[in-house]
Design brief:
By secondary structure, this protein is of the alpha+beta class. It has helices spanning 11-16, 31-38, 86-99, 128-153, and strands at residues 5-9, 17-27, 42-43, 48-52, 55-59, 62-63, 80-83, 102-110, 116-125. It has a seven-stranded antiparallel β-sheet.
Length: 157
Amino acid sequence: MGEEKTVAQNRKARHEFSIEDSFEAGIALTGTEIKSIRAGKVSLADAYARIEGGEAWLIGANIAPWDTGNRYNHEPKRQRKLLLHRGEILALLTKTKAKGLTLVPLKMYINQRGRAKLEIGLGRGKQLHDRRRDIADRDSRREMERDIADASRGRQR
């Protein structure tokens, strides 16, 4: 099939959460959903994952209806089951209950075999001061890289 193709990313996830660990999960889909995913019509902006009844669920992900899907088309924001091993589900459940972590979808992609996969992160919500510190660190790192590049080119600021 080729190489991995990223279909959708949740850009707000790394900004609003500090991601401690990540997992790969399959997604139980219908026929028109996988066609929409391969066309890139996915949004993970408001999505989150939850463990209920021993099963993992993706909630709030928007997969647009397939253009030529007629009456067999899917519901865009329905809950979708995540395919994980029982041990992974138990580990995620204990970490979310004990440590107060949240399951955040990071990106959806198509793997080499043509299957839709979801990367889920275990994250802790950032406070406002944490976000500001991250922005200040990023700005200072960019400034240093800019100064080093200018110095190597023989320029001065």
